[in-house]
Amino acid sequence: MTEQTSQTPLQTEVKATFKRIWVVILGVVAVAIFFLWPILSNSPVDYANVEDHYKYGSIGSEQVNGVPYWIWKVLPDVFPDKLPGKGYDSLGFIHEPGKDLPVGFSKRRVFLDRVGLNCAVCHTGTLRETPQSEHQVIAAMPANVVNLQGYIKFVSEVALDSRFTASRMLPEIEKISGGLNPIQKLIYQYIAIPLTRDALIRQGNQLSFLNKQPNWGPGRVDTFNPYKAIQFHFPMDKLREDELIGTSDFPSVWNQKPREGLQLHWDGNNKSVDERNKSAALGAGVTPTTIDLKRLKRLADWLWELPPPVYPYKVNETLAATGERLFENNCASCHAFGHPKIGKVVPIQEIATDRHRLDSYTYETLSNQNTLYAGYPWRFSHFRKTNGYANAPLDGVWLRAPYLHNGSVPNLRDLLEKPENRPKKFYRGDDVFDQEKVGFVSNVAEESGKKYFEFDTTLPGNSNSGHVYGTELSSEAKNALVEYMKKL
Ligand code: HEC
Ligand code: HEC
Fold first, then answer.
1. 186-235 pLDDT, tens per residue?
2. 409: CA distance to ligand 2 center in Å?
3. Number of C-beta neighbours around residue 131 at 10 A
4. pLDDT tier, 453 (very low <50, low <70, confident <90, very high otherwise)
5. pLDDT score of 1 more than 50
6. 217 φ/ψ sector (left φ>0, alpha ψ -120 to 50, else beta)
7. Residue 264 has what pLDDT?
8. What distance in Å separates the CA atoms of residue 123 and residue 333, rounded to the nearest whole number?
9. Whose CA is nearest to atom 2 of ligand 1?
10. How far apart are CA 47 and CA 41, in angstroms?
């Protein structure tokens, strides 16, 4: 043994100490990675199947406006008294068997798992042949049963409630989550719950003008007023009363390709499918920095050529053939692809339907919209102020009831009646199909304890006036026309 190879006890001790320090450092790093990796990663839940992606996938709305997953999950348990029935389903959200979230809700991890909205919340609906049939979920049809205003009211009210505290909510979360890890627990207790409450209170205040509007009921949303309040910070209490209501029926969003270049949106204010998609994404809660363009493109590509669903019930072909001729003579010039007036705007004086939605979209809204996405290559440039409502293509129209931009006419047969003979009140939210009049059943107030929404056409924004085309035809001719429209 020589001097060079042997170590003094001190050297051995120093080396061992270093080793211990290293082990401790490595241990700390490993634990930190273990806990922090999921927190620091930003990862949406993805779906191989494109229809699932459409219904449950992310467009980026969770990142700023998302609600932390476990808070979202326990709200109905902590505040059952604030819902019309059991759980989120009582607001008409569509719950498919085996799925965690309802259609239209997506999940993404940004520090915590968060829940946001996607296109399907407003653009996916259900259909039943009879009250005994299963609900069939149909992507890209209007969300005929979803009560979005009910949801907005629910999250606003719970945020103001004294039960919205960590001490009340954490035990519920622990119960259904099977136990959070200690870091998650701290984050929920000191950050997620208080910040979510504040954000929901803020949003509730911004949207308090909704209390001045007639209720939307299922299947409708105010297109631009929430935008004005949340994105542009307009002083909503100072706006003209007639621009404060812009409640619109959800449209279908299939078959976008032949729509490119047409003036769409109910008032025809935009010709670009791509811009409409991006502006719609803003409505769902994305911001110019969080919009997930890759995932949005995936679903836009799918909608591009998605065919409208074929009418699944019986059609009287002889009657429909008569109806086809009537459609050609009375309706096709405005409503059929390839005709000169398709996708053009009919002035409000001529169409004479309710003008609130048109007036809610103001020059000021337009100029603010043009500043959104400023500095990005996809900045909006196609929005225009128009003077009426657009001639929309009627593909799949059988699934698009109630009709007109404000959803004020329950079925196609009633649309062919003179406005004074159309129903003054009817029910929305049922998905049983009315094969005779073509639309959803609208005269049933309640079914197995579930109350449908009474739509009152005398309230502001709800008028069923105008669009008198075809109303002078004979009753037989009207029946024939309706029979044909099942096939569009
Ligand atoms: C909050 C509900 C809501 C969400 C979420 C939503 N939309 Fe819409 N969408 C509407 C309403 C309402 C209209 C009609 C607006 C109007 O003209 O007043 C519309 C219109 C459209 C139109 C034009 C339809 C036509 O024929 O005029 C397209 C296309 C569209 N949405 C696609 C999307 C896509 C894609 C997404 C997701 C990125 C999306 N929407 C998210 C409610 C929504
Ligand atoms: C001069 C053009 C024009 C003619 C002709 C015309 N429409 Fe329309 N139609 C419109 C406009 C504009 C709207 C949108 C009005 C609104 O929503 O306020 C509309 C809306 C509709 C809707 C509602 C679509 C939806 O998704 O809610 C249906 C259904 C419809 N028309 C059927 C017909 C039928 C049937 C005929 C023929 C008997 C016809 N239209 C003739 C211009 C026309």
1. 999 999 999 999 999 999 999 999 998 999 999 999 999 998 998 888 98
2. 12
3. 12
4. very high
5. no
6. left
7. 85
8. 27
9. 122
10. 18
Which residue has better confidence, 46 or 99? 99
How high is the pLDDT of residue 383? Answer: 85
Of 403, 298, 328, 237, nearest to 58 by C-alpha is 298
CB 269 within 8 A of CB 358: no
Structure tokens at 26: 């490595």
Nearest to 222 by CA among 213, 233, 230: 213
Q: State the Cα angle at 256 between 253 and 257, rounded to 5°.
A: 170
Residue among 240, 248, 247, 461 at smallest CA distance from 354: 461
Best residue among 334, 345, 416 to mutate for probing ligand 2, ranked by most atoms within 8 Å of CB: 334
Closest among 440, 423, 422, 419 to 431, alpha carbons compared: 440
Mutating to test ligand 2, I would choose from 252, 266, 404, 405 the residue with most ligand atoms within 8 A of its C-beta, which is 404
Q: Answer yes or no: is the C-beta of 225 below 6 A from any ligand 1 atom.
A: no
pLDDT given at position 231: 83
Pairwise CA distance, residues 414 & 431, whole Å: 18
Three-point CA angle 154, 159, 164, nearest 5° = 115
- 263 within 8 A of 27, measured Cβ to Cβ: no
- pLDDT tens readout for residues 329-376: 999 999 999 998 999 999 999 999 999 999 999 998 888 888 777 777
Atom of ligand 1 nearest to the CA of 361: 18
Given the structure tokens 């591009």, which residue do they identify?
304
Q: Which of the four pLDDT bands, split at 50, 70 and 90, describes residue 2?
A: very low
Q: Tell me the residue type at 33.
A: I
Angstrom distance (rounded) from CA 479 to CA 117: 40
Q: What is the pLDDT of residue 287?
A: 75
Q: Report the C-alpha gap between 295 and 288 in whole angstroms.
A: 15
Q: Which pLDDT band, with edges at 50, 70 and 90, does 237 fall under?
A: confident
Give me the pLDDT at residue 471, please: 97
Question: Which residues have C-beta within 8 Å of that of residue 340, sequence separation ≥ 6?
Answer: 333
**Residue 12 predicted with pLDDT over 80:** yes
The 10 Å CB-count burial string (b at 16+, else e) for 311-348 is beeeeeeebbebbbebbeebbbebbbeebeebbebbeb
